[in-house]
Amino acid sequence: MITKTQLRVKRSFDLVFSIILIPVLVIPIIFFIIIATIDTGQSGLFLQRRIGQHGKLFHIYKVRTLRKEKHVLGHLDMSATRFGKFLRRYKLDELPQIFNVLIGNMGFVGPRPDISGFADELENEDRMILKVKPGITGPATLKYKDEETILSQQLDPKSYNRTIIWPDKVEINKKYLENYSFSLDLSFILKSIVN
Length: 195
Description:
alpha+beta, two-stranded antiparallel ribbon, two-stranded antiparallel sheet, 7 helices
């Protein structure tokens, strides 16, 4: 199980690595946000409340990829733009999360931060995954890198996500914490870059 000392080392690495990467990534991030603003007709920087470490809420930063389309019945439908699909395909919409890492409400490696109704409802030993900061990448993220495609092939995507994918992610993240090592984090970062 991950220790307090390992958590401190993990945070130190996240802080130093984010400080190194931000000067490299800030120009592409600004460029993507400007294009997304023009493309979607809304602010290109998207903020959403997610469940973080110890179940605390925080705002995750992303490049906006969805536009609002009004249907004849007056309902709003959210659909990805062509540029948005490109960003999502290569996970470039998640680049602003480098600032979440800098601030300290995310890390480079850990369970992905979910919206309310998932991690905040964990019980008993499953709550161990809230011990670490949510991550940009991690073992469950890598396994389900094509999650949107998988869900699009299901008759009931919401049910499939809640009954199949989510429980599997919880088990994967529990094993990650039970077998934690700094070298394991580095391996997930490298796999994310390669994949």
